[in-house]
Amino acid sequence: MTTYTTRFGSLQRYEKGGVEVINDDAKNYTFSNMFEVASMAKPYEKVAVGKNMEYVLEVLRAEGTSGWRAAAHDEFALVMDGEVEIRLRKLADPAVVPAGTRGSVSLNGTPDGQPMGRVRARRGHMTLLPVGAAYQFHADRPGVILLQTVAGADTQFRWAEICQTM
Amino acid sequence: MATQTTGVRSTGPNEHGYRRFQLGEFTFSRDEYFVHVAWPTGSHIMSADAFLRALQRDVAWGFFYGIVNFDGVIGTVNHYGTVDLFAGRYNDAYRKAELDHVENFPSPLILESFQAILDDWTNAGFDPFASPHETGGAFGPKAGENRRATTRRRVTARRMVGVPGDEPLRSDESGFPINRQFVDVPQDEPEIVAEPGFEGQVSAFNLFAYLSRSDVTWNPSIVSVCQDSLYCPTTEEYILPVIHGNDRVEWFVQLSDEIHWAVEDRDTGAVRARVVMKPGDVCAMPADIRHQGYAPKRAMLLVWENASPDLPQLIASGKVPTNPVEF
Ligand SMILES: [Fe+2]
Known about the structure:
The complex is a heterodimer of chains A (about 170) and B (about 325).
Chain A: E1 18-21, E2 32-33, H1 34-39, E3 46-52, E4 55-65, E5 69-71, E6 75-81, E7 84-90, E8 104-106, E9 115-121, E10 125-129, E11 133-150, E12 155-156, H2 159-162
Parallel strand pairs in A: 3-12
Antiparallel strand pairs in A: 3-4, 4-11, 5-8, 5-11, 6-10, 6-11, 7-9, 7-11
Chain B: E1 9-10, E2 21-23, E3 26-30, E4 34-39, E5 42-47, H1 48-60, E6 67-69, E7 74-78, E8 82-87, H2 92-96, E9 101-106, H3 107-121, H4 147-150, E10 191-194, E11 204-206, H5 207-212, E12 224-226, E13 229-239, E14 243-245, E15 250-254, E16 259-265, E17 271-277, E18 281-285, E19 289-306, H6 311-316
Antiparallel strand pairs in B: 1-2, 2-3, 3-4, 4-5, 6-7, 6-14, 7-8, 8-9, 12-13, 13-19, 14-19, 15-18, 15-19, 16-17, 16-19
Helix pairs in contact in B: 1-3
The complex binds fe (ii) ion.
């Protein structure tokens, strides 16, 4: 029987595809690679690799311990490389994130509220960051998180640096 | 079954055992190898297996976003409530010759008719959702049915797969063994520790293991929902059976392996680009193109959609550009 090898990418090992332009502008495809983006990013910077109106896909380089953040809507963290501990805390005062806020906000120190629990997530694991909760990431070694969220005050847009332009 | 419903117009079986269907001025018939489509200004022929694979997606997706081209001639446009069935409408030569033809139908009527065609023309051994290597053929005289395959329920999580009360995980027990091309995908689940009082409120799952157990190809299914932002991952093998024409920008994140995309102008079919995606690559498909994917090995693709009902009009009216971002 044939054996198949499923190929995933990582910070250590990724290979980029690309756009072969025939009659077009490569910029129309905003082509990037999340491992390349994360390898150039500072820990927990929120770098957009996808944007559709107000919604974004952010790549986060997970390394060390992040600050606490919270959003006024659900967000989803998919670990694409490494191992990340995700810590959740129920917000005692949900108003620290005003209703209608887009994306997540940074919280000062550890927010008041009961610990809800934690998730140890490895490659391919997706975690719900529920509305009403604050979250913190921790990674002993560098990893990569893909975040499904809404563009917020801390979302970084650096398309010209990360995308194929010709 | 379908002859009793009011909307579907069909005749009895032909010499090959297949019924002939009429939808507006379009007629659909099949023989052992081919599907024949006719309309007042022309006719068309397609391989029965390619037609049924395309029809299966169109039906299962409720006509999806924008245009589902079965090939360069036949297809549908979703107007979200009504659907255009067209021949040659997005084909430069047909347009110039004025031989294209479009009819608009209420969505339930065309859905019911397409379901009836799919039901009647799919033989027992053929699974239109499976990769060619995992199914018997579509050809030959009528031989039974495969409703188990053609009426599969599409996964549509309301919040996230694995959240209590939402879409369940997949397992051997629930009838989703690991696919032969994903046997090396780790099946470990994330370790979840919920504090007392928060049981069931800390949710995580192994998306890659979940996808390794998908029994279908080229079938985006919703696994997480952030307002109108939908993660619709899918497992791809061989060729996308439709050429998808966008009515909004659509994004691809290559989770595993490799997919090649042929990108054409949405309205004329003129070639615009080829895109090769490898693990970790992220790429937008502009709102004015159509695309067809090729996956040499079963691959995990995250299709990311913005389901906002306002988008098609915003883009069609030029209020929102067809390219994803300006830089
Ligand atoms: Fe598509």
